[in-house]
Design a protein that fits this description.
alpha+beta, six-stranded antiparallel sheet, 33% strand
Length: 116
Amino acid sequence: MELKKLVDVIVEAYNEQREDGSKVDEVSEICGYEMEEYLTDYKNENYSFDQIEHFGGEGEGDEMWKVFEVKDLKTEEVTNFRVSGYYDSWNGTEWDRTVELVEAYEVTVTRWKGIK
């Protein structure tokens, strides 16, 4: 899915869930915590959203990001995107409200431990 279409799908899914009837036109208008709250495990007749990975938060430093999977239920196409931001103990999580297309890749890591 192209980024422009993805952004439209995110805004549509968010607007569908607004209880007060208000609407947003851009992802940048969505509060950070609402992006997480409204897109985690959400499904409508066209798309399903799942949070598949996250990093950061309390006790893990100030960098924070979450990766979501969007599945087009008609074509079965899957698109992954990330929202990034920061965490601080006074305000919680603040997302920068941009959407970035991402794909998974493997990394091999060697670690060292003491031996007797």
